[in-house]
Specification:
By secondary structure, the protein is mostly helical. The chain has two helices and no strands. Helix 1 packs antiparallel against helix 2.
Amino acid sequence: MHTATEPDGSTDSLLLEGLLQLAVEGRTDAREFQRIGEEVHSRLLAAYAEGASNP
């Protein structure tokens, strides 16, 4: 169940699509690539931390 503070799946998909598109274009040194990568990383950490605390 999603709450108001949880990102929905479409937002996650858009972030990953943007990251992939920048990688395909070879723009991995762009600030946008770094920003999106950091956001994806923080969401993964939050998701796995949440899952670890709820067995």
